[in-house]
């Protein structure tokens, strides 16, 4: 039975479709592969899946350059494959949310091709942000905005005979032109896109670059030292977190409310201030927003406590639940962020128990249940992230967290695809040692830690949505209680410490002794749940 208001305490598993499971041996993951591996996700204990874009796309940016919002790219399958996956997931009691990419399309989208073929001032151009250039003959961009992927955020059109023309805005790659959301036609198009997928039965949408879409109409220059970054709390950027986005989300919330079954809208809003993030979660707007301040917080007890408190307070003010996330397809995997090697894995395991014990819902990125690290040594010729080329080959981009998953022990493709197939990104030597088959049933493995913690999170009334109470603890230790009867303690330091503990150990991220005389010795970089 699927629960109402399911997003408030759900464990949602992100699938990067291209890298999850390859059913046909072409080297790329697909929808049929996800369906085949669905029993693993049910066994893991997740409540919902989030699928990255599987739409028709040239894959200039891994599918976030959409050429057709209402169809499946043949690389990933067909609409029938999507319907079969959705039906199988629902039969298993698992929800499915999908990406929607409203800030920009692919340059291969029909609309943009029509815009390029049209004359300046034509209605076809009004769907995107075309502007005349500055300086003699318009040879300079309309302003000094920079692309998130490096280089200028404007590209100048040229006629077939080479005559230079207007410029168009792309906050990301040049193959990802930004829509103009002052145009009613853009609003109507996305209303229809949402309804197309809601009619098919999806349980909601993750909204890509949800803090974008609306730009300051004056298109002002930014400060010379302003970062062209998704998250830069030091600067107010005229193309992010503009007040006009909230009108869009009130409209979308009304559409979602037309459908039964609690369809959820989730914002990818790279906004550092928790109070401004909460504005996206007002009762007539979105249901959730990713907690990027938590994701980017260092392994430091004081800093993490501040982020937790600030997040819970801001979201409670608008009646919203809080989300927690450690990794996704855009950031370095947290095993590596936390130091890499054995230390990084210890911290990652402890961070998982901390996250799963906090009030609200959690997002898990595929492969973190295997303790996968970032692949930092991909050959340069294998790199596909547009950041690599646009940065002048100085930033390697995000391919290292997108390497296909190892399912079975042995050499590549490690069960990702049929034997003899070649994955779209090379799998490192020894990847098979981390495979699901190697960890399933193995005492102390990261996979079994996730399975046990997710099972307890479902079984224990105290966990999931609700409140928490901090408990006094030694320096470098976070300790809190969830009622009824669960205590979480995390030692973020290197040395063992003693903490108050009277009950049995429910789950621990590393070896711990049973409590004695109301005390427990907690090793460094270790977390534990206790029956209080």
Textual characterization of the structure:
The chain has helices spanning 31-44, 79-91, 110-117, 184-200, 245-257, 274-278, 292-295, 301-316, 334-337, 341-357, 386-390, 436-439, 446-459; strands spanning 11-15, 48-51, 55-56, 68-72, 95-100, 130-131, 154-158, 164-169, 204-207, 264-267, 288-289, 323-325, 361-365, 469-470, 477-482, 486-491, 497-500, 505-508, 519-522, 526-531. The chain is an alpha/beta fold and 532 residues long. The strands form five sheets. Strands 11-10-9-5-2-1-13-12 form an eight-stranded parallel beta sheet. A five-stranded antiparallel beta sheet has the order 14-15-16-20-18. Helix 1 links the parallel strand 1 and strand 2 (48-51). It is globular.
Architecture blueprint of SSEs:
Blueprint: E1 11-15, H1 31-44, E2 48-51, E3 55-56, E4 68-72, H2 79-91, E5 95-100, H3 110-117, E6 130-131, E7 154-158, E8 164-169, H4 184-200, E9 204-207, H5 245-257, E10 264-267, H6 274-278, E11 288-289, H7 292-295, H8 301-316, E12 323-325, H9 334-337, H10 341-357, E13 361-365, H11 386-390, H12 436-439, H13 446-459, E14 469-470, E15 477-482, E16 486-491, E17 497-500, E18 505-508, E19 519-522, E20 526-531
Parallel strand pairs: 1-2, 1-13, 2-5, 5-9, 9-10, 10-11, 12-13
Antiparallel strand pairs: 3-4, 6-8, 7-8, 14-15, 15-16, 16-20, 17-19, 18-20
Helix pairs in contact: 1-2, 4-5, 10-13
